[in-house]
Amino acid sequence: MIYRAKDRSVHSIDGVGVWPKAISAEHFVTTHGGLIPPGVERCVVPAAPDAWLTALEHFGTMSFGDVAAAAIRFARDGFPMYPSLSRFLANKRASYERWPSSAKVFLPKGRVPAPGEIFVQAELARTLQYLADEERKVARRKGRKAGLNAVREAFYKGDIAAQVVKFIKSQGGFMSREDFAGYRVNFEPTVKTRFAGIDLHACGPWSQGPVLPMTLNLLKGYDLKALGHNSPEYIHLLTEALKLSFSDRHNYFGDPKFVDVPLKGLMSERYAAYRRSLIDRTRAWPEMPPAGDPRKLAEVPNRWMPEPETEHGPGPGDTSYLCVVDKDRNAFSATPSDGSDQTPLVPGVGIVCSGRGTQSWTDAGHPSSVAPGKRPRLTPNPALAFKNGELFMPFGTPSGDVQTQAMLQVFLNINVFGMAPQEAVEAPRFATYSYPGSFQPHAYFPGRLQIENRFDRSVSDALEALGHKVFRWDDTTPRAGSVCAIINDRKHGVLHGGADPRRPAYVLGW
After folding, report:
1. Domain that includes residue 373, residue range
2. Helix (H, G, I), strand (E, B) or coil at 314
3. Whole-angstrom distance, CA of residue 60 vs CA of residue 58
4. How far is CA 400 from the centre of its chain?
5. Is residue 160 part of a domain?
6. Domains in the chain: how many in total?
7. 485: which strand partners?
8. What percent of the chain is predicted at pLDDT more than 90?
9. Where residue 365 sits, what CATH number does that domain have?
10. Is the residue at 157 inside a domain?
11. Residue range 105-120, pLDDT digits in tens
């Protein structure tokens, strides 16, 4: 998501790939019992290159070679392995060992790189350098934008596409050269609401983005400050509001090019008032509440519900987040995401083809079902906030289905409780899992509420008395997200940043 200060415009680029044209939901039902297994069968067309190039073309001033120079250097010469990445590789070692091409890069010499060891990605460096060289050949004759398009052509229509498609097909996948060549990202409208004098822009229903403004709409009817920050009553109210939004996410959200998402109705004050009336301040929903019908203001039975998960706890989310505000108060808010352990690394290219298909459903009736050319409903959803018509705050986080929940809590910490951004991101956090998860196999934990261990025992006792199934994380956990934010302080002409210590995160200013 990008804010252009000169014309006060907000732009959202989806950056999510589409399913190959040769795929069908029926394939996964008949071949894999309705699951979308790890490997190339869950690959969608990689969207990241076109997303970055499109943003650079429309809003940037530099060349691809300029912005990729540091990445090329770090991939070619290596960088010191940092502790959290080393732990991740150790935890996922068996996944990387499934594919020799992945093990070669991520487990060099057959072992997990130790913290401080230099980690090299030589094939990735060669790929990025090749793209920069292709750009340079064209840009010197035809200019910057033509050069950027040359990068796009080289990736999606040239040698890289040929290598990636050949490898995917050799592993039993469905990708074609035509799938690559026909792909372009979309500019999408944002979803907006106003809360406590702040105008929020969220991503559309091709992602889980509307969960955040929908939940804020539900909370407009309450004096949150009077409840007390992170009191049992406050946590209960936010959790019940989130459950209502997640039930609508599950029943309605999907690629708007394929499904009719009743977004106007879902975002209406009339619908929010109806859904708000379903919140019981004295008792928690024991499962995900029924979805609503924004036209009839009635309940809709939940469909496509998996069996409740009883043996395992929720898994961690995996993503990154970054935001930037420049001297002119242009803003950039992005949630780059794709794991490297669920699909094989393409040998000779050094990239992992996007496994974002894991966030689709194999029931053909589900709004986020597998279909040719369709986008999965993805979890990443950066946001931008404005105050009095001026940029106020870009913010976002990793952590899968917890993203909107962590963003909600930080947003309220700042705008209701008056916290500075660093205080806001460090405050204790909670998350509900009382909905089918976005990732295969869409694990469902009815009534489950996770809280960080910094909450007093009296808080969890009160929540359990209200009917929540309370489980404790550690004092701080990466599963609760890693929210980063920048506040534009117009009064003093300065920027304030907040970097969440739950994962490696930093604030830099120059």
Report:
1. 1-43+185-510
2. coil
3. 6
4. 6
5. no
6. 1
7. 395, 498
8. 96
9. 3.60.20.40
10. no
11. 999 999 999 999 999 9
